[in-house]
Amino acid sequence: MAFKQIDVLRQNGCLCPCKPSEEKEYYIPIRRTSNWYGAVAFCNSVGMEIAEVLNEDEASALRQVLQEEESDLDMEFFWIGANDLGTLGTHRWGLSGRPVTYSNWTEGEPNHALSDDGQTERCVAIAKDTFVWNDFQCTGRKKFVCQQFRDE
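User: That's the sequence. What structure does it adopt?
Assistant: Structure tokens below.
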């Protein structure tokens, strides 16, 4: 019975890809910045999705990609898929809606800071140099990370 259930899941391309992290690859579009929404849209437009970091292994893989990224800035952040746009304080991943169960927040974050124009920090980016997470206003422009699963 379990075997048939697995076959049904494999044949259903619309289901979330539940593959091991070693089959995931991260990509940073060259010379492109966007707000968080544009990052999600760009990743989708090229057949990828905004990056999810589900565990320490994936964090390590992303760390390697970020270390290879050339930058003139001492402190640079890259959008990832985590956000609390649905419910303030409840972070979920961009398109899958899965709860964020692994994180690496900067001390004191997420703080949901409020800007002068009334916008709250709701979208998450990762620091290139320290790999810690911080929440930002989703409308800010940053580089971003897309992911895709390797073909088997």
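Residues 23-149 form a domain with the Mannose-Binding Protein A; Chain A fold (CATH 3.10.100.10).
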